[in-house]
Design a protein that fits this description.
Helix content is 33%, strand content 22%. The protein has 22 helices and 26 strands. Helix 11 crosses helix 12 (436-444). The longest helix is centred in the first third of the chain and has 21 residues, at 3-23.
Length: 670
């Protein structure tokens, strides 16, 4: 094959991959592969002296986002890249430079006039981008207004943190390959609320223009900070010798490998502090020669043998994970790497056990299979869910064409991940050390399918300690936290059950009117969905949701399995008086003087009395304003010779001297 033909093949592959990269579609190749092909193309261009018209070395890849196209006031050109610190030293010319992150997301140019946001435009091809101003309110970091009346143009990166990315993939039906792919794909959405849910952060990295005369790059970043922006992290290198540059690069690299930086980066950038000098450079291809210089890490790769593919179920998606012979990468032992979805497996040409893989840690963090050197056997898609055994189905995303595997069982424990996460949360049972990712792992291993299973994890402690990312110390900490959570406040437990419409405030209100055991019993026994609606702040909808949840047989079993594992504490209100001391009351029918029956119940308890739901030999009084009623409770009271008194009689005998109902504590019924 001649060199020109090879160059055209490389150009076609690189351009196709770039289109996917910038438009949030399925990943066609890894960054490692793209960089290798790009470097090969540059080498061929140098050897032949030819640059093909559509070569990515001579243009900025553009997005194809739907929306109005807009020409940039200032061209958004890309930076030249290197993997050699010596190139940075040569470029710096011993002038003071700033080093900052090369954030891995989607570049947005934001403009302000007279203190107000006027437009947000994607980088596009560097000269023309897509206007997405309508999404500005959904992107964190883009301020709607600033305390400056001049013309301001800022360039920044729209990124999604690793934590938010992992959370989204765990909950979504479509799994993205990396945070950058999710960020760019999110900006194709039309609904700002849907975009907002993705938690995109915009981080300024260049003040392109201001009417102020600020000639220092560092001072310009400080100026942005004073306006309320959160510019990219940066560090000054006053004397950019090779030794100084390497020292700073090493320190910043550790921030990546130690996960100190929450956002994805694919390198570092150095920029002249003297912005006037930076503007004197020429434009070569699509690079402004003095605008900045990007440094990318040398990816360390290793060859290994595939042992098997593990299918991991989280939310509704079942994702393939390559498990291979351990290899050393970036100073750590790696033996697993996510394969994301079926499409990625097919793109790589993954086979079965014994296949030979090339593995890297992308951007120094995430283990990634970049190539299959030799496929052995065939890639098998499981027909049954690894968690519950139900049938699986393959879905194809309309937006990206990505093929993903899903469990068809709506009750699959893996689909209840958010509920388990709430159960162990700080506001719930407060089980420290168990994250959603950890829960997903336990669910996939079959260790957790019910809340009570959390309290039986000790049975799996030995196996847990052998899992990647665990150890005897971390397992011991988890076990201690689980044991400590066995003693729990009633309010925390009720919240942890994840009953629809039953948040912290609703739990507090319900438990201010009932003891937990009574609350559960009455919710199960009542046929009236509005049974708890009389409690202040509850109402018919919340009451109906609460009653329906406790009528569900599966939920009943969940509670019955869980309660024996716990010691529930419910703070009792100390009596403020003794007018009802030692007496047991039952209340039925409507009340007129008190706001509702629960307010009357609270008063009785504040006076040392007790209120139950049914008439028995231990009942002292039945309170019913319809004394002559033939209701079941009245009939039972007559049979047992228990006095039936009206609300007026109760007040006269047990409440205030003037016959008015005694006030209840304001924090219970506000």
């Amino acid at each position: 094959m001649d060199k020109i033909t090879l160059m055209q093949q490389l150009v076609d592959k690189l351009n196709q991959a770039s289109q996917a990269y910038y438009n949030g579609r399925g990943e066609l190749m890894s960054d490692h592969e793209w960089d290798s092909m790009f470097d090969q193309l540059k080498q061929l261009e140098a050897e032949t002296g030819e640059v093909l018209p559509d070569s990515p070395t001579n243009k900025v890849s553009e997005d194809n986002l739907a929306g109005q196209k807009e020409q940039h006031e200032f061209a958004a050109l890309s930076l030249a890249k290197t993997k050699l610190p010596a190139d940075l030293e040569k470029w710096a010319e011993m002038r003071p430079v700033w080093l900052s992150w090369k954030l891995d997301g989607l570049t947005l140019v934001v403009t302000y006039d007279n203190g107000r946001l006027t437009k947000v435009v994607t980088r596009g091809n560097g000269h023309i981008g897509t206007n997405i101003t309508h999404l500005a309110g959904a992107i964190e970091g883009i301020l709607p207004q600033i305390a400056y009346s001049g013309h301001v143009v800022i360039r920044g990166e729209a990124v999604i943190s690793y934590e938010d990315f992992e959370q989204f993939n765990m909950e979504s039906d479509e799994e993205y390959a990396n945070p950058r792919n999710l960020a760019s794909g999110s900006l194709t959405l039309k609904d700002p609320q849907e975009v907002k849910a993705r938690h995109i952060h915009w981080i300024p990295f260049t003040l392109v223009h201001t009417d102020e005369d600020i000639s220092s790059w560092g001072a310009r970043m400080q100026w942005l900070r004073k306006l309320g922006f959160g510019p990219v992290e940066h560090e000054l290198i006053r004397q950019p010798t090779l030794n100084n540059i390497e020292e700073v690069i090493d320190r910043w690299t550790r921030k990546v490998t130690d996960r100190v930086n929450p956002y994805p980066v694919d390198g570092l950038v150095i920029t002249y502090d003297d912005t006037a000098y930076a503007q004197t450079g020429s434009v070569t291809g699509h690079h402004a020669t003095r605008a900045g210089y990007a440094f990318k890490w040398q990816d360390e790769s290793a060859e290994t043998r595939l042992d098997h593919i593990e299918w991991s179920c989280a939310a509704s998606t079942i994702s393939p994970v390559a498990v291979f012979d351990p290899v050393e990468l970036e100073g750590t032992t790696v033996k697993r790497a996510s394969l994301c979805n079926i499409s990625e497996c097919q793109r790589l040409g993954i086979g079965g056990s014994g296949s030979v893989l090339q593995v890297i840690k992308a951007n120094k963090i995430i283990p990634k299979v970049i190539r299959v050197s030799q496929a052995v056997g065939s890639f098998e898609i499981p027909e049954h869910c690894p968690v519950c055994g139900s049938a699986t189905k393959v879905s194809v995303s309309g937006a990206s064409g990505t093929r993903t595997l899903h469990c068809t069982n709506a009750a699959c424990p893996a689909k209840q991940l958010k509920k388990f996460a709430r159960f162990v949360s700080k506001a719930g049972m407060d089980v420290d050390g168990i994250s959603e990712q950890t829960l997903a792992k336990f669910i996939n291993l079959g260790w957790v399918s019910d809340y009570a299973d959390i309290y039986r994890l000790r049975d799996h402690a030995t196996a847990m300690a052998s899992l990647e990312g665990f150890g005897e110390k971390s397992v011991a900490n988890i076990m201690r936290s689980i044991e400590a959570s066995r003693q729990v406040e009633a309010q925390r437990l009720l919240y942890a059950l994840t009953i629809p419409m039953c948040g912290v405030d609703v739990c507090k209100r319900l438990l201010s009117a009932y003891k937990l055991a009574d609350l559960i019993r009455e919710a199960r026994e009542t046929s009236d969905e509005g049974h708890f609606a009389v409690i202040s702040g509850i109402g018919p909808e919340k009451s109906a949701s609460f009653v329906r949840w406790f009528h569900d047989e599966q939920n009943q079993r969940t509670v019955d399995h869980l309660l024996p594992e716990l010691h529930v504490i419910q703070a009792e209100s100390k009596p403020t008086g003794a007018r009802c001391e030692g007496l047991t009351f039952v209340i039925t029918g409507d009340v007129h003087h008190y706001k509702n029956r629960n307010e009357l119940k609270a008063y009785i308890e504040s006076q040392g009395g007790k209120v139950t739901g049914s008439v028995s030999k231990s009942t002292n009084y039945l309170i019913n304003n319809d004394v002559a009623s033939t209701s079941t409770k009245n009939q039972k009271a007559h049979q047992l010779d228990i006095p039936i008194i009206s609300e007026d009689e109760f007040i006269a005998r047990f409440a205030s001297a003037d016959g008015n109902p005694a006030p209840t504590e304001p924090d219970l019924f506000d």
